[in-house]
Structures are given as C-alpha cells and as structure tokens.
Amino acid sequence: MSDVPLETAAEMPEYFDVLVVGAGPTGLACAIEAKKSGLRPVIVDKGCVCNSLFHYPAHMTFFTTPELLEIGDIPFPSPNPKPTRNEALQYYRQVAAHYRLDVRQYHRVERVSGTDGAFTVHTLDRFGRPGLLHTRKLVMATGYYDLPNYLDIPGENLSKVHHYYFDPHPFFGMDVLVIGGKNSAAIAALELWRSGARVTLVHRESELHRHVKYWIKPDIENRIKNGEIKAYFNAQAVEITPDSVALQTPEGHVTLPNDFVFAMTGYHPDFDFLEGTGVRFDGVDRRPVCDPETLESNIPGIYLAGVIVAGSRTNEIFIENGRFHGRQIAAALASM
Q1: Among 263, 284, 318, which residue terminates a domain?
Q2: Residue ranges for the chain with pLDDT beneath 50
Q3: Which domain covers residue 114, as residue numbers?
C-alpha cells in the first residue's frame, strides 16, 4: 500500500506524452496510434465517447460501409451494408475498451497554457470542479458537430427551435418547418412527414444540394412534387414566433402556422477555442495553418486531426479519412 495520503495522492499532477482533445472516432484513433508507438496518451472530452455520434438521430444509418469506419486495425462487424448509429457506438466502445484507452469523459478543456514539451491543460468537470493535466504534446480532434450555424433571426432562441434532428415521433400532427437543403434537412423532412407531421421545407438556393444522396434526392423531390411536403426555394426564414414562422420568398412575405422548427443549417469547428491556443487560420475557409505531413500546427507541439484540418469546409473530411490522421501524428512524434 502506498504511504502517500489519499488527499495528497488525489492532488498529485498527472503527466502524459500526448493529450487528445476529443473522444470521437478520430480522437480515439489518435490515442491508439500514440499508444502503439509506446507513448502514454489520455483523451479528454466534454461529453461521452463519440459524443457527436451519440447525438445523431437514434435510427440513423451511415452513408458509408463498415470497413471505412474502422480504427485501430479492429474489424467492424455488421450484418448491414451500411451500419447504424447504434452499431457504430457499440463498435467504438469496444475498440476503446480493447486498447484500454484512458478517456476522461465529461471534462471540458477550458484553456491550455505552457509550451511544447510542457503543456498544462486546464479542465472543468460536469460539476464545475477544476483539474490540471500535464502533457508533452497536444492533439486537437474537437470535430465540429457541437456548434451549429445559427440563423441569427428573431425567435431563434425559442424552445421550439432545434438545430439537431433526433426523432420524428414527438411531432406527429404538428406544423413543422425544416430549414436547409442538404442530406440532414432532406432526411428530417422525410421522416417527419412519414411520422404524420405537416412538413414545410425552406431552402435559400433554387434547388436541393447536388450532394444529397442518390437514394434520398428522388424521394424528397417526389414528395415535394406531389404536394405532400410543401417547399419554398430561393427563400429564407426571417422571424420565428411561438405560433408562426415568417418567410421571405420570391413571391413576397409569407407567414406560416408553425409548432416546431428544425434549422438544419450545418455546423462549424470551435474556432474560438483553437485560436485561444494560438492556432492560426487563413483564408475565407479558415483553414488552420499546419504541416500537411505531420499535421503540426503553427504552434509547436499542437497537432490537428479530423475535420478541423479543413476549416469551415466540413464536407471534405469525415471519419473515413480523418481516422488516418492519428498515424501521421504518431509517425511525426516517433521521429523526434
């Protein structure tokens, strides 16, 4: 038994070789590759393991195949050609358990101090209690799904407005407006309609986005053509009230009765947090400055992984390619 008093042991600082911010598939992959290289990693996340995937719709099916979601050289067994959200969550839990990853769930990283080789990461747990972790290197794998692109219109803060689609059942018999023209908006509109909601779709462009999946696009277009889902194109919501939504359309101002709004307008990385660490972003797309081979940012010792490497162009990096960033980073660390 240790002679260190319990209260002292609890306060002893913890030191790691690599601290990964974000416990999504990319963050898990980074920690796995670091561990394979003989380093001691830790992962910190403000939510649960794969927090973004957890907040996807409960019955969601991925657009990709199981093997393209694999990390850590662990096969993803699925009886389906396209796995479900629940299958993916189970798979990533099992991978994390297999590699005995040290994941500090429900700890928010508030700020980072120090320099390369001696970073201090300041955290808060879900009860607001502060903590400190010390690490030689940092990997930012914070994703983008937690920060929606807001409409910035009156009424957006009403409780009836949602920026995440989760389940159609509570909206049976309700007037629901879906804002957006990409996959998430099309899927939400279709599922809500099929569950008995009266659905209106509004999109600022002249047609649905060309990247809407080939099996979804004709479905939503036929529902619109048949009048089962009302659609306004080249239009936008300008005000939300408790009982209505005001739209600006090519035909002029339109006011619709409304019970709920799903603003499926996309998401963006936490630029403010990353800039707080000193990471610099360039250009209209706000791509971070980083070495394309090592993924080290302009701040020595801070590496970037996953979708944040693409800046605001969040459609360029997914699990399928972001999962390999851990190998690049681990190779760079091993060569030092």
Answers
A1: 263
A2: 1-2, 4-10
A3: 6-147+267-334
Quick: pLDDT tens for 220-268: 999 999 999 999 999 999 999 999 999 999 999 999 999 999 999 999 8
CATH classification of the domain holding 101: 3.50.50.60
Retrieve residue 90's tokens.
């189970």
Name the region of 184 (left: φ>0; alpha: ψ -120 to 50; beta: rest).
alpha
pLDDT at residue 33, as a whole number: 97
> Can you read off the two tokens belonging to residue 289?
């400055």
Q: How far, in Å, CA of 293 to CA of 270, rounded?
A: 23
pTM confidence score? 0.89
Whose CA is closest to 73, among 329, 327, 336? Answer: 327
Beta-bridge partner residues of 261 = 161, 177
d(CA 45, CA 50): 9
Which of 218, 210, 220, 163 lies closest to 187, judged by CA?
220
